What we know:
four-stranded antiparallel beta sheet, 53% helix, alpha+beta, 22% strand
Amino acid sequence: MGFLENFNYFDYLLLPFMIFLARICDVTIGTLRIVMISKGQKRLAPILGFFEVIIWLVAIGRIMQNLDNWVCYIFYGAGFATGNYIGMLLEERLAVGISQIQIITGKNAANLIQALKEAGYGTTYHPAEGGATGKLVSIIYSIVKRSDLEKVTAIVKAHDPEAFYAFADVRFVNKELYFPISGKYKGIRLGK
């Protein structure tokens, strides 16, 4: 009973937990800030950076005031790791930006191109020769919102389950893009 009477709940439970939560917040915000920088979001990235560093200063300040408390170190590291994970999950859910999809199919591409167009996605197509086999293939390119990648992938799989496809993030385009929104098209201007 003597140990529990002398146990300092604030220093060994509450303070480490607060540091843990602060690290989750600042690392999550930092992960999103890096994504915004890579997407060219010049207005949002600095705002996120401001809050990230303020929260980090509070957390590191508490660590410095309690250098002899090893429990705080453990929770600081655990908060960092958890913040990375949560940041990646959030970024995936937000699906900010646009992507290019490249589809390589050994089948006739006309039906797939038509399905993509009917869903509101523009396409560029050209025939090519497959690398290892020398077989004639079709290569289809499209620019899509990252939030639509699952829908586009479903269209591709429905028309050719064996098609090869790859996504690449797009940071800049020099024309206005039109994406389907509830049966209407909304223009998005990226670039200058």
